[in-house]
Amino acid sequence: MVNVLSTMAQMQPKPGKPSLKQDDKALGAVTGIIAMEGPQAKGSLAISFPKAVILDIHKRMLHEEKSEVDDMVKDLTGELANMVLGGAKRLLEEEGYSFGLTLPSVQAGDGEPVVHPYKGPKILLPFSTDVGEFYVEICFEN
Amino acid sequence: MVNVLSTMAQMQPKPGKPSLKQDDKALGAVTGIIAMEGPQAKGSLAISFPKAVILDIHKRMLHEEKSEVDDMVKDLTGELANMVLGGAKRLLEEEGYSFGLTLPSVQAGDGEPVVHPYKGPKILLPFSTDVGEFYVEICFEN
Fold first, then answer.
1. What are the sequence ranges of the domains in chain B?
2. What are the backbone angles phi and psi of residue A61, rounded to the nearest 5°?
3. Is the predicted pLDDT of residue B4 greater than 90, yes or no?
4. Is the pLDDT score of B137 beyond 90?
5. Pairwise pLDDT comparison (A138 vs A94), residue with the higher score
6. Closest Cα in chain B, distance from residue A93 (Å)
7. pLDDT surpasses 80 at B91
């Protein structure tokens, strides 16, 4: 995540304290979700951005100011989920896991449920930026 | 983990399904534990080997047959914990986390409590080998 955003958006997000997420509420205004399905494990990764953060990333990466989470901003969120998961997949494959990925699904709405495709524990990793925090959720089937 | 054992012991452990570990019982006869302490997060990694598995690794790495978990086998367990954590630390540092590590502590005893230094959820990753399974536990402070 940090690699992706430092390369693509010249941002240096700072990771915060991991925790187990206890509910399904989206912590941001827009969330990209990708399922990972493999013979050893199934799970998913979600990345949620508050509006101020994703609009700042949009401006930095695409050099265009937006005031709302429109379809272009949603597409960018899906792309970011893809890039983060690509890195995670490579690391997991080094450990012997193999996964197929689905296309990212993107949902908008603060506090709406984030629907992970499998039931299981969700690890929440916060990252802080100059304009606010964003969140990575990793869910694995129990 | 897979890298360490394939390089050092010509083994190809296969990862299994991750889960949340619900109790403190050691899943193997010998367990190495290392604490990770950083400004953003605190946690620990434990690696537990059943007797047959650690004796097989000992034979492959040190070319010496053992029939019991003696001090040399315990030292090897601590070294393996160190090597696995070294890899994990590097990956986490790429994500912006920084950690100091403690020296590994090693305990022996099937079903004895595995005492992680911080209270929090424990992710259990099983790996299978020709002579049995072993277990990596990742605990992070809540």
1. 2-140
2. -85, -40
3. no
4. yes
5. A138
6. 10
7. no
Give the model's pLDDT for residue A48: 96
Secondary structure (DSSP) of A52-107? HHHHHHHHHHH----SS--HHHHHHHHHHHHHHHHHHHHHHHHTT---EEPPPEEE
| A88 vs B16: CA distance, rounded Å | 17
In which region does residue B113 sit, left (phi positive, over 0), alpha (psi from -120 to 50) or beta (all else)? beta
> pLDDT tens for residues A30-41?
999 999 999 888
> To 10 degrees, the CA torsion angle through B27, B32, B37, B43?
-10
CB contact under 8 A, A20 and B142: yes
Q: What is residue B9's predicted lDDT score, i.e. its pLDDT?
A: 82
- Smallest CA–CA distance, residue B142 to chain A, in Å, is 6
Nearest by CB: B140 against A18, A40, A96: A18
pLDDT of residue A16: 92
Residue type, A89: K
CATH architecture of A2-140: 3-Layer(aba) Sandwich (3.40)
Among A28-37, A121-130, B9-18, name the one with the lowest average pLDDT.
Answer: B9-18
Residues B15 and B125 sit within 8 Å (Cβ to Cβ):
yes
Instruction: Report the gap between the CA of B70 and the closest CA in chain A (Å).
Output: 29
Longest dimension (CA), chain A: 43
Please provide the average confidence, as pLDDT, over all residues in chain B.
Answer: 90
Tell me if B94 sits within 8 A of A13, measured CB to CB.
no
- Answer yes or no: are the C-beta atoms of B20 and B123 closer than 8 Å: yes
Q: Which of B84, B81, B111, B102 is nearest to B37 (CA)?
A: B102
How much is the average pLDDT of B76-90? 88
The CA distances from residue A131 to A48, A53, A76, in Å, are: 14, 6, 18
* Spatial distance between the Cα atoms of A85 and A83, rounded to a whole number of angstroms: 5
Q: Which residue is closest to B127 within chain A, CA to CA?
A: A96
